[in-house]
Automatic annotation (TrEMBL):
InterPro entries in the cross-refs: RuvA_2-like
Native source organism of the sequence: Chitinophaga alhagiae
Superkingdom classification of source: Bacteria
Name this polypeptide is given: Helix-hairpin-helix domain-containing protein
Length: 644
């Protein structure tokens, strides 16, 4: 039977059922109150451990988490949301957005959220993850005044403190070992946002020495949307373009078990309220929308940390020693850019331009592998990107060129092959001399350039219980790389199977294989990792047990975690046992506070213990306390959040 015919039949039955006996449920949904059994909790978990260690500064951007947290209290109206709003959720793939828009155009606004079961590509596990952030509203956008912008939003104050209780060796840095972060933010999503953020890293001085101004990092932003002004950004903001060949500041995930989440999606301008000190711009930007066209322009001036006279930049943002303080703000970066986007009936086309001017020249050096490195003070990138949906296919891509006429191309295709079976294909080709400072496209390299490859992903679902996902990626580097003294190639693959018999029980098995090029003319053994993860309820929703077993040729890890709820309390206890080869490490995500995307790094041999408690006080105050213990070291973290 035709896919859409089945959707129509299911929808008619669902709507008849809702009209006959679901009036009360419908009324609650429009009033932002969900049925009790459909309420889900933050955070939304992702596979952060797939990111390489050098990408740690990018993880400090928790804008996506803040956005979902706001939507948990002020849900998105699915009947009024456009493609950009659906993508901003960060939960829907390009195929799912395309299928939902087509469903709504064919059958009209949703009557009930239960109708999501009839949308092609929406299974029960995915719908459950979506429910805390959406509602089936009237489809009418309210008319807010500027006075409403100031009065109807949500204020949030977040304070986070961390201190080692005992360390293996004495503090070698100039400042105290305390880490402090303070953030105030007002959000009237999606119309207005403003706030300030302050952070001091462990080892940095505070109101003395090199940091007489107090915190090491200060940030502020103002973001407004009104009428034809889709975005007005002042202060700190991020910029996302195309598929990341030219520019991508936002948090994105590459090759992982989410094999269909390979397309970059996001609004061009977004406010920046996170504590990271590198991946953002500081200045002003504006996006004007008229009918189906958008014009974006932005300017930025930033002082960056440069390692030496050659102009190489450091991204960590640490200023703990005299050497690190000497690098602080030693490089000025001036940035200007523009984007023109034309929305089509089933997609868009865009033209992107970005220019940087630095106060010091970059010197590429004399090493052969740096022959195509950045050189000079001025850098320019320009390109086009597009997305187009047709039936069960979704095409997307980007082409870019730099000032030296070196180019990069990425072309992708997402396809629904049959009911419950989806596939992704991505071809990329980036010339050895292509360079873009903030590029973050799908690929093997952390930055764009000197790479070509082909990615294939396949995902199949049987009902709401079984999911099988796999990908294979073949890549080649046409020029030398660091410690690789010849053109090289490699490939990696992943196979994952997930069984979810109910909402609280999940079993996942995963196998990962990677073959890399020789280093210093010495062959590198293939990397193989087997992982098993299980999550199951011990006492209904009050006690949950999670376990992760991971083993490879150079490392293994066993992690167990217990999560309990009692009235307004939540408790978590985790134990990690690990062993790795010399200079190797394993990473574990999701061990910090909600919104803290940091990775726990384990190297050598040993164990670790984590205890965490959360208490909600009234309707506006939430506090967390976390204690970590390892042989010879322990630390304490405390976090308070005030909402009103």
């Amino acid at each position: 039977m035709n896919w859409w015919c089945m959707a129509v039949v299911i929808t008619v039955l669902l709507r008849a059922e809702v009209k006959a006996g679901g009036q009360e449920t419908q009324k609650k949904e429009h009033g932002r109150e969900m049925p009790q059994e459909e309420v889900h909790e933050l955070p939304y978990e992702t596979e952060l451990e797939q990111l390489p260690e050098e990408e740690q500064p990018r993880l400090e951007n928790d804008e996506a988490f803040q956005q979902r947290e706001t939507l948990a209290g002020r849900r998105l109206d699915l009947n009024a949301a456009d493609e950009a709003a659906l993508y901003a959720l960060g939960l829907l793939s390009a195929l799912q957005v395309q299928q939902f828009i087509a469903y709504r155009q064919l059958l009209g606004p949703l009557i009930s959220l239960y109708e999501l079961q009839a949308v092609p590509g929406f299974d029960l596990p995915f719908i459950r993850s979506l429910l805390p952030y959406v509602r089936a509203g009237t489809g009418l956008e309210p008319a807010y005044t500027l006075k409403d912008y100031w009065r109807k939003g949500r204020h949030t104050v977040l304070m986070r403190y961390q201190r080692p209780l005992r360390a293996v060796e004495a503090n070698k840095y100039n400042g105290s070992i305390d880490k402090v972060m303070l953030r105030y933010r007002y959000q009237f999503s999606p119309y207005a946002s403003w706030g300030v953020v302050m952070e001091k890293d462990a080892g940095e001085q505070f109101f003395r020495g090199a940091q007489k101004q107090g915190f090491d990092h200060y940030g502020a932003h103002l973001f407004v949307r009104k009428g034809n002004i889709k975005a007005l950004a002042l202060g700190d903001y991020t910029v996302n373009m195309g598929q990341g060949l030219i520019q991508w500041h936002g948090l994105s995930f590459g090759k992982s078990g989410q094999v269909m989440q390979v397309k970059r999606e996001g609004e061009v301008l977004r406010p920046y309220a996170s504590a990271g000190e590198f991946y953002f711009y500081r200045g002003a930007g504006i996006t004007i929308k008229r009918r189906r066209s958008e014009w974006t322009a932005f300017l930025s001036r930033r002082a960056l940390d440069a390692a030496d006279s050659s102009g190489s930049l450091t991204t960590g943002g640490y200023h703990r020693t005299a050497a690190e303080v000497g690098k602080r703000g030693s490089m000025l970066q001036y940035t200007a850019g523009a984007v023109y986007k034309k929305w089509l009936p089933h997609g868009h086309m865009a033209v992107n331009v970005l220019a940087h001017r630095f106060s010091k020249p970059f010197v590429k050096g004399t090493a052969p592998y740096r022959l195509y490195g950045p050189d000079g003070r001025t850098f320019l990138n320009a390109g086009v990107d597009y997305a187009l949906g047709w039936r069960n296919l979704h095409f997307f891509g980007e082409a870019a060129v730099d000032r030296n006429r070196e180019y990069a191309v990425l072309q992708g295709l997402l396809a629904t092959l049959s009911r419950g079976v989806d596939a992704a294909f991505i071809y990329r080709r980036e010339m050895p001399g292509y360079h873009a400072f903030y590029a973050d496209a799908l690929g093997e390299n952390a930055s764009a350039g000197n790479e070509s490859g082909f990615y294939t992903g396949l995902q199949a679902r049987w009902g709401s219980r079984w999911l099988v996902a796999a990908y294979a990626d073949v890549f080649r580097f046409p020029w030398l790389r660091y410690r690789v003294n010849a053109p090289s190639e490699g490939y990696d693959a992943l196979v994952m199977c997930t069984w979810q018999p109910d909402k609280l029980t999940t079993l996942t098995l995963r196998y990962y294989y990677k073959r890399k090029a020789a280093i210093d003319s010495l062959p590198v053994p293939a990397e193989q990792t087997v992982r098993c993860q299980i999550s199951l309820p011990v006492m209904a929703k009050s006690l949950q047990w999670k376990c992760r077993l991971q083993a490879g040729a150079t490392a293994w890890l066993v992690h167990q975690q217990w999560e309990a709820r009692w009235q307004r309390w939540r408790f978590s206890a985790g134990y990690t046992w690990y062993e790795t080869a010399e200079k190797k490490a394993v990473f574990l995500a999701g061990q910090g506070f909600p919104g803290d995307n940091s990775l726990a790094r384990y190297s050598g041999s040993g164990w670790g213990l984590q205890l965490q408690a959360q208490r909600r006080i009234g309707r506006s105050v939430t506090c967390w306390c976390r204690w970590q213990l390892a042989p010879g070291a322990s630390s304490l973290q405390v976090q308070w959040r005030f909402d009103w």
